[in-house]
Amino acid sequence: xIRPFARFVAVLLxxxxxxxxxxxxxxxxxxxxxxxxxxxxxxxxxxxxxxxxRVVVLDSPHLDALVALGTVPVGASVxxxxxxYPPYLADRLTGTEPTGLIAEPDLxxxxxxxxxxIIGSAVRHRPLYEQLSRIAPTVFSVGSGxxxxxxxxxxxxxxxxxxxxEELLSGWRERAATVGREVGAPGRTASIxxxxxxxxxxxxxxxxxxxxxTAMGYDLGDRPWxxxxxxxxxxxxxxxxxxxxxxxxxRAQDPSSGSRAAVARLWVPLPAVRAGAVHEVxxxxxxxxxGVLGAERVIDExxxxxxxx
Length: 309
Known about the structure:
By secondary structure, this protein is α/β, with parallel strands linked by helices. The chain is built from 13 helices and 12 strands. It has helices at about 5-15, 60-70, 85-90, 105-110, 120-125, 130-135, 150-160, 160-180, 210-215, 260-265, 270-275, 285-290, 290-309; strands at about 35-40, 45-50, 55, 75-80, 95-100, 115-120, 140, 190-195, 200-205, 230-235, 245-250, 280. The chain has a 5-stranded parallel beta sheet. A 5-stranded mixed beta sheet has the order 10-9-8-11-12. A two-stranded antiparallel ribbon has the order 1-2. Helix 8 runs parallel beside helix 13 (about 290-309). The radius of gyration is 21 Å and the shape is globular.
């Protein structure tokens, strides 16, 4: 059996990309690269001789950011096997090839696409950085999801489009505040719940969907949030889902099984349940589709649920 790294090197050599597309080292604009630019990112500095035309993204915040900037990547990784791209982006990605899972990118698929830029995140892909940099100039954000605006800005820097991204970030925040007042968010508490097979997660103000609801004016509470701004809880702790309004996702979409069924038996006396303020929302948008376009969809869904009662 050929070892994975040996296969990877073999593909590089066959396609002739190991040297020709290597990342720069931030040495500045040289005589052989007029008009280029250098990107400072989580792993240091990467030199790009011009705006890239063939971009591969390995994580969802960068995918959203890239599409928001009007660039369709030639390749992108997905959150789970068979999941495809987030539905709110899918119609714009009909020509985008899959490059494995976000948690485990397929390096051979990346090589075959002959990218001139790869974008990923250090929190997920740090061990792959050297290999990726041998394929093409590679830029990493620090995180993924938490502090998602950092990922948006790194993506914009990578394609030399920071001013446009700043406009987009300012625009979604203004809209969040406006729609938040419209639905009566200020002064109300909210719980964001993601049901999993054996447990559920509560999401805090530094998570993606939590940051959007906070910008709208909701209070997610002062809890011992972990480094990813979430809390993993057993179903018997359903009482912690105590917001005035509850937004939940269930990837399995099965109310009769898993933690969702267990919690449903326990949360009847909770404020939001009694008030009929419990709303199911799209998992791929609230939990996976992280970015400016995803934030706009979250705002839309909050307004739609509020209008429905």
